[in-house]
Amino acid sequence: MARIGFIGAGNMAEAIIRGILGNRLYAGHEILVYDANPQRMDYMVETYKVVPAASNEEMAERAALLVLAVKPQVAPSVLPSVAPHIDGDQSIVSILAGWSLETLRGYFRKGSLVRVMPNMPALVGQGMSAISFEPSASEALKKTVLDIFAATGEVEVLPEHQLDAAGALSGSGPAYVACFMEALADAGVREGLPRATAYRLAAQTLKGTAAVQLETGKLPAEIKDMVCSPGGTSIVGVYELERGRMRAAVIDAVHGAVLRTKEL
Ligand SMILES: NC(=O)C1=CN([C@@H]2O[C@H](COP(=O)(O)OP(=O)(O)OC[C@H]3O[C@@H](n4cnc5c(N)ncnc54)[C@H](O)[C@@H]3O)[C@@H](O)[C@H]2O)C=CC1
Ligand SMILES: O=C(O)[C@@H]1CCC=N1
Questions:
Q1: Does this complex have an ipTM over 0.85?
Q2: Torsion of CA 166, 169, 174, 177, to 10 degrees
Q3: Could you tell which of 71, 132, 261 is best to mutate to test the pocket of ligand 1, judged by most ligand atoms within 8 Å of the CB?
Q4: Measured in angstroms, how far is the CA atom of residue 61 from the centroid of ligand 1?
Q5: Which CATH number fits domain 2-163: 3.30.360.10, 3.30.450.40, 3.40.50.720, 3.40.50.2300?
Q6: Do the annotations mark residue 7 as ligand-binding?
Q7: C-beta neighbour count of 131 within 10 angstroms
């Protein structure tokens, strides 16, 4: 049996595989992949020396731990043919946005189920994964799954009812942050900075500010206050953000993503 198999070998599967290989959790020959797109299969096999499966069904027969990494809209056409091949000592890790453990259990009669909401920065080992286990999950399974996602960044075990919120915040969050980064860089260009310089300044500013929060534990409000001198420049910028309803827009963005998650 392969240690792990990926149903769908797109962006997120690739990010997880990079983490596994980079941290030497498993070797390429212990990782099975299947993707409906033959060019994608070729790319994954050539780049990561992973093992191609002939079909999702074969994968289900041959992988001890199966990662569901297709789009949620594709899952209903994939799972009915995969589920009958799963037996009681296999495990299924789903990264499908909006798919509850209960919904998954409707397809999988056997096997342990885990739900994970990773995020795109897993690609560079800076991911944030929210993870929910079934109450019956064994300690061995918990360790295996935590090790896999810790190899792509940080992990947080959450009760399942919090997973849609986590998905809308940290799962979708890189898209919002990228919009903010782009706006910051556009602003720099407007004020005369070269484009490449503006991106570098914007990206490192986001990374550095996040690092201060993570490393000092300071509240975002305290960090803002450390930057805004009385009568200075930054507080004028903060005032303009408030006038633009930046906070309300972000809160609305996450709420919109939660509502969409519930539709999937
Ligand atoms: N992209 C992101 O930032 C995040 C995505 N997710 C979840 O991860 C999952 C995968 O997303 P991505 O990797 O972004 O999508 P993707 O589109 O990059 O990858 C999906 C892959 O599935 C393949 N595929 C389509 N039909 C198939 C089939 N019948 N059998 C096997 N493979 C098939 C596609 O060819 C594609 O390579 C989704 O369920 C999404 O909700 C979760 C967190 C973050
Ligand atoms: O937008 C999506 O469907 C996925 C789920 C979380 C991040 N991206």
A1: yes
A2: -160
A3: 71
A4: 21
A5: 3.40.50.720
A6: yes
A7: 22
